[in-house]
């Protein structure tokens, strides 16, 4: 049986990959993908704990998270398209109108 | 109700004209004149009520009610107040009528009427007040009206300056008056006249320590009280050293000079001293101060009037001098004589001012007597009424001024050693008064015309609305001497207890004769100087050039105040502005704003507008929180 810590390490690696992707990549689509990675890292955590603690609630939560993630991607892509019409670019550094 | 309507009619006129002035415009007199006439009729009826019965006490409503501090709006009309009511309503009524002619076509016609109605209301309330606070409030209200009316032609710098000067100089005196009112309450626990008068004697020997921090300077409390109240009178009645505002107040329209700055408001100080006779009688020191200030003012102003060339300024200085006369009489305990002179002076001085006004109108606003002359044939009514007024002012026998001036001099003579000294001052003043009033008559009305020839052809008597008041006042300037006013007033004005009974007979007769000689001598000397030998005045002016210059420049009092008070104040204000205001207060305010600006400049750098920077901050924050959590 695979110990819980393996799942924790896997989810940690995936989460960090996503976080670093969000922080260092410039392509706005990649940012969205990275956020999805972070979400799924938490999903791995949920499922692993659910299995080890014999509590179905964690798996139910994952379904909610997946649903929300799907909706989020739909909305996020829609926003990107709207943004692209204004500024034809996918480089996130060009969207800095809120600079103080 | 009848008594309440006396002041309320002019007040209603003020409200109506004040609110609807734009619409009423040059019909304002149709409201103001009937209102004042109505209040005259009511005042006359009140006068007869009081002449036959006892003083009227009336409480209209409770104005301030706070613990033991109870102030009603009420009336206390005794013989003194009744006589003043008549004076105020008569002169005010005549001046209202005169104003119709004098101010015709003026842009501020309605405004002028609303202010004189307001003044009449305030003056009546002042006279009828039954407590110190009401007196004080309306004392300030007449001062406000005076300010507004002196500055009627506010576009002229001289007029607005004069208005400001009058107001500020009066503040000096009123500061003392205000303190006096507070002291009255502190001492007696009430502000009602009659309660204060009843208690006054029991405080006669109390003292008050004026030095703080353990010093000792005990002062008789009633003396202090009387002197504080007198400070207000000095300002309002233009006594030395606060006389400087009254001559400048002549920048206002002439009807105002007649009503406010001759007959009514400026006499409020004298009225106040007489009203508080009970208090003053208890303090010989305060009375001596009042008498000396009055005497000094009388002769001081008379010497200035000798050399002035502005027709209104001559009359103004004579007003100051005559007010000093009245004040002197009150200070010597001859309250009856002082108020008697106040009433006769109200008639003949209003007459003289209105006479000046009709000369000024006839000559198209020429006020310099050196550019007049030869007016007596062109302005017969003005001339004759003016002569009657001048005779009364000079104390010519059988005019009202003669009787009231004699009353003062006799009262002074019988009032001890100080009184005798002041009698001499009074006689000298009478001589000077006769001289300068007839200098004015001879120079302005007699001799060859020195009027601008373009104007001279059009000179004619003004309209009947202006000559009628002159004739009425001229009649009053004679008649008021025969009405037995002193006998009427004396029950309301208790004299000092120490006063010996008046010496009838020899002394009285001698003073009367001397005063007559002084008056006639002054007139005769003026006749010699300005009719027989017109070259003489300039010769004398050259011989005593320093004296002449001193008198011409009003003994440099204005210059002195300018150097001692006005300029230091302005400089101090400038310094405060440039150092305290700009470098401390403004600097503090700007410093706060500047430091916030600096901080926000630094904080702005954080808001880059790039999502990734925020995400990084979030991630770092999470790491820090986790780190702290794990380490602790």
What does this structure look like?
Chain A has 100 residues and is mostly helical. Chain A has a domain at 26-91: Helix Hairpins (Orthogonal Bundle). Helix content of chain A is 77%, strand content 0%. Chain A is built from 3 helices and no strands. Chain A has helices at residues 4-24, 28-53, 57-86. In chain A, helix 1 (4-24) packs antiparallel against helix 2 and helix 2 (28-53) packs antiparallel against helix 3. Chain A starts with a helix and ends in a 14-residue tail after the last helix. Chain B is mostly helical and 632 residues long. Among the domains of chain B are: 328-552, no CATH class; 557-631, no CATH class. Chain B is 73% helix and 4% strand. Chain B is built from 26 helices and 4 strands. Chain B has helices at 2-24, 29-52, 79-102, 109-128, 132-150, 157-188, 193-200, 221-236, 245-248, 254-263, 268-275, 277-281, 284-305, 311-331, 335-362, 380-394, 400-413, 416-445, 453-456, 464-479, 485-489, 506-532, 536-543, 545-552, 557-604, 611-631, and strands at residues 56-66, 69-77, 207-209, 218-220. In chain B, strands 1-2 form a two-stranded antiparallel ribbon. Chain B has a two-stranded antiparallel sheet with strand order 3-4. In chain B, a hairpin with an 8-residue loop joins strand 3 (207-209) and strand 4. In chain B, helix 5 runs antiparallel to helix 10 (254-263), helix 8 (221-236) packs antiparallel against helix 11 (268-275) and helix 16 (380-394) runs parallel beside helix 20 (464-479). Chain B is globular, with a radius of gyration of 30 Å. The model of chain B has no long low-confidence stretch (mean pLDDT 91). Chain A binds chain B through residues 19, 22-24, 31, 92-93, 95-100, and chain B through 603-612, 615-616, 619.
């Amino acid at each position: 049986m695979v110990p819980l810590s393996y799942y924790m390490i896997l989810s940690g690696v995936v989460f960090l990959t996503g976080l670093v992707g969000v922080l260092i990549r410039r392509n706005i689509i990649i940012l969205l993908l990275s956020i999805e990675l972070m979400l799924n890292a938490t999903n791995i955590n949920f499922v692993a704990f659910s299995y080890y603690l014999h509590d179905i609630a964690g798996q139910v939560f994952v379904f909610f998270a997946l649903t929300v993630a799907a909706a989020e991607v739909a909305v996020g892509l829609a926003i990107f398209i709207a943004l692209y019409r204004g500024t034809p670019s996918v480089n996130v550094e060009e969207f800095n109108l809120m600079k103080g | 109700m009848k008594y309440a309507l006396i002041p309320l009619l002019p007040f209603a006129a003020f409200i109506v004209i004040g609110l609807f002035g734009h619409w009423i415009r040059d019909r304002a007199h149709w409201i103001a004149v009937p209102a004042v006439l109505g209040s005259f009729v009511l005042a006359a009826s009140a006068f007869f009520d009081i002449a036959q019965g006892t003083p009227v006490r009336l409480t209209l409503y409770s104005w301030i009610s706070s613990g033991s501090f109870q102030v009603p709006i009420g009336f206390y009309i005794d013989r003194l107040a009744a006589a003043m009511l008549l004076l105020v309503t008569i002169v005010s009524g005549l001046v209202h009528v005169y104003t119709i002619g004098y101010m015709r076509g003026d842009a501020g016609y309605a405004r002028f009427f609303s202010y004189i109605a307001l003044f009449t209301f305030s003056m009546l309330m002042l006279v009828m007040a039954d407590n110190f606070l009401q007196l004080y409030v309306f004392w300030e209200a007449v001062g406000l009206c005076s300010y507004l009316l002196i500055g009627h032609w506010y576009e002229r710098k001289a007029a607005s300056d004069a208005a400001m000067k009058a107001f500020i100089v009066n503040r000096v005196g009123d500061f003392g008056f205000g303190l006096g009112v507070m002291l009255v309450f502190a001492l007696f626990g009430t502000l009602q006249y009659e309660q204060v008068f009843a208690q006054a004697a029991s405080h006669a020997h109390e003292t008050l320590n004026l030095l703080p921090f353990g010093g000792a300077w005990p002062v008789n409390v009633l003396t202090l009280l009387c002197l504080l109240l007198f400070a207000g009178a000095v300002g309002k009645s233009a006594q030395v050293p606060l006389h400087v505002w009254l001559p400048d107040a002549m920048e206002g329209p002439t009807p105002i000079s007649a009503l406010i700055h001759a007959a009514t408001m400026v006499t409020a100080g004298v009225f106040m001293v007489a009203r508080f006779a009970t208090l003053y009688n208890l303090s010989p020191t305060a009375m001596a101060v009042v008498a000396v200030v009055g005497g000094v003012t009388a002769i001081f102003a008379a010497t200035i009037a000798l050399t002035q060339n502005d027709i209104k300024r001559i009359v103004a200085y004579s007003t100051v001098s005559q007010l000093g006369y009245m004040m002197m009489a009150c200070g010597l305990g001859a309250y009856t004589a002082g108020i008697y002179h106040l009433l006769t002076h109200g008639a003949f001085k209003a007459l003289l001012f209105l006479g000046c006004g009709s000369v000024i109108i006839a000559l198209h606003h020429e006020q310099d007597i050196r550019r007049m002359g030869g007016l007596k044939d062109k302005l017969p009514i003005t001339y004759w009424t003016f002569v009657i007024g001048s005779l009364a002012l000079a104390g010519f026998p059988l005019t009202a001024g003669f009787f009231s001036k004699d009353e003062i001099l006799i009262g002074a003579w019988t009032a001890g050693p100080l009184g005798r000294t002041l009698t001499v001052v009074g006689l000298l003043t009478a001589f000077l008064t006769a001289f300068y009033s007839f200098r004015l008559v001879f120079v302005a009305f007699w001799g060859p015309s020195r009027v601008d020839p373009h104007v001279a052809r059009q000179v004619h008597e003004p309209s009947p609305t202006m000559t009628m008041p002159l004739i009425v006042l001229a009649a009053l300037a004679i008649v008021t001497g025969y009405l037995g006013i002193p006998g009427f007033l004396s029950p309301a004005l208790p004299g000092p207890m120490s006063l010996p009974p008046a010496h009838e007979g020899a002394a009285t007769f001698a003073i009367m004769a001397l005063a007559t000689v002084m008056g006639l001598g002054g007139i005769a000397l003026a006749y010699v100087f300005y009719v027989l030998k017109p070259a003489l005045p300039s010769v004398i002016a050259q011989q005593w050039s320093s004296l002449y210059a001193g008198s011409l420049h009003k003994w440099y009092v204005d210059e002195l105040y300018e150097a001692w008070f006005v300029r230091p104040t302005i400089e101090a204000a400038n310094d405060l502005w440039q150092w305290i205001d700009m470098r401390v207060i403004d600097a503090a305010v700007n410093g706060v704003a500047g430091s916030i600006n600096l901080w926000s400049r630094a904080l702005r750098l954080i808001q880059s507008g790039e999502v990734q920077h925020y995400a990084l901050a979030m991630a770092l924050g999470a790491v820090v929180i986790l780190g702290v959590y794990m380490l602790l």
